[in-house]
């Protein structure tokens, strides 16, 4: 990696001079549109990191961005954190600006994993390493590392939860069946396909033998994926399903890949007159605060807890290692092929959370407080 040694030496000299004079530098910056600036910044090491996040409409991305920014600033990096509000071209423009600002590294959670190859090539041409964050950037060899959760594992855990809670093996033996509908992730997010494959690895045999019945017939990824993870689309789909296919028979399982979908599904079920007595099993992902409140209230059955503090820490340490010319910790070198290379990856482990274990995982684990969960 090329280092601008003269600039670093001059910066270090300036910092030393300011410290010697007892001058305190304000670490915060005024937030601009699409930019979040938080946390306390340690003495600058003269290096800059750009973080490009997809949207502030989901609680988890706000937490991811803020956690990573705080960690990197504690190590002395100057950090620019921006959100593209699910606009692929806006994210490209933000990354281009970061390259122009001569950041030393980039962390990118893609809005559209297929739209960033060109701008990532620009970063590579400027010797800027890229950490792909949670959503794999496709069709470019400019990616240094990838930090994510075990995305197929998320799907497997959702499928296994449904299998166990509905005791599908016992239902099969008794000749019984459950109705199910699927609400899968965005087609431009590579993770969504891994998750779908994990779910179907568990549930496809029960669809094949009739233990699970999907009355809409929509079981393929193409038929169940929801662009940009839209809550509104999930609600509209569920409303349509309930009115067209479930007027005379109740829906037993709503297999949702995202908490946001589950909020839309909840609204559709409520409008259709479902009550606690016939409420279906509703899955989710991300363990957002609202989802946990719904789990406690009984309108969502489970979610997948992905500790974004851990993922942000892993990505932050990856950046630090790369900029210090060290090898970061990885635990997968086979699974994540982006079409140009198999990206060295660190995968964090997701965990199912429901009414039985949310206190242990989320409150005892200090992810949320009991007051937050119980707040109306």
Task: Kindly list the characteristics that best describe this protein.
376 residues, alpha/beta, Rossmann fold, 2 domains, 6-stranded parallel β-sheet, 4-stranded parallel β-sheet, 12 strands, elongated, disordered N terminus
Describe this structure in words.
By secondary structure, the protein is an alpha/beta fold. The protein folds into two domains: 5-17 and 25-149 and 307-348, Response regulator (Rossmann fold, 3-Layer(aba) Sandwich), CATH 3.40.50; 151-306, Rossmann fold (3-Layer(aba) Sandwich), CATH 3.40.50. It contains 14 helices and twelve strands. A six-stranded parallel β-sheet has the order 2-1-3-4-5-11, sandwiched between helices. The chain has a four-stranded parallel β-sheet with strand order 7-6-8-9. A two-stranded antiparallel sheet has the order 10-12. Helix 2 packs parallel to helix 12 (308-323) and helix 3 (88-100) packs parallel to helix 4 (117-125). The longest helix is centred in the middle third of the chain and has 19 residues, at 190-208. It starts with a helix and ends with a helix. Residues 1-39 have low confidence and may be disordered.
Tally of DSSP helical segments: 14
- Proper CATH architecture of the largest domain: 3-Layer(aba) Sandwich
> Low-confidence segments, ≥5 residues, pLDDT <50?
1-39
Distance between the termini: 51 Å
Sheet-strand content, in percent, reads 5-15%
Helicity level: 40-55%
Biggest sheet, spatial arrangement of strands:
2-1-3-4-5-11
The H-and-E topology, N to C, reads as: HEHEHEHEEHHEHEHHEHEHEHEEHH
Task: Return the domain count.
Answer: 2
CATH topology of the largest domain: Rossmann fold
- Mean pLDDT value: 90
Q: Return the CATH class of the largest domain.
A: Alpha Beta
What's the story with the biggest beta sheet?
6 strands, parallel
Sheet/helix structural class: alpha/beta
CATH superfamily of the largest domain: Response regulator
Q: What coarse outline follows from CA principal-axis ratios?
A: elongated
Radius of gyration (Å): 23 Å
Find the count of extended strands (DSSP E, 2+ residues).
12
Domain Periplasmic binding protein: 49-327
Subcellular location: Cell envelope
Protein name: Sugar ABC transporter substrate-binding protein
Organism: Sellimonas caecigallum
